Amino acid sequence: MPPVPAARPAPAGRNRVNRQMIAQRLIPHGLRPVVLRDELVELGDLFRAYQQRTEPDLGLLADLHERKARAFMAWADVTGDINLRLEARRAEQAAVAARFQQLQRTGHSADSDGPTVARLLAVPTQWEHARSVLAHVADHSPLPGPEARLLAVMLTLRTAHAGTGNLVGQDLTTLGLTDPEGLVGELACCGWLGIPGTTSDLLASRPENPTTVTVPSLVPDADGSGPFTFGKKMRPKLSGWAQRVVSDKKLRKAKAPAAARLLAMTLATQTSIDGRLGPGGRGIALESLAAWVPVDPEELQHLVDQLTAADWLTEVTLTETQFTGQLSERVLPLTCPLL
Question: What's the predicted TM-score (pTM) here?
Answer without folding.
Answer: 0.70
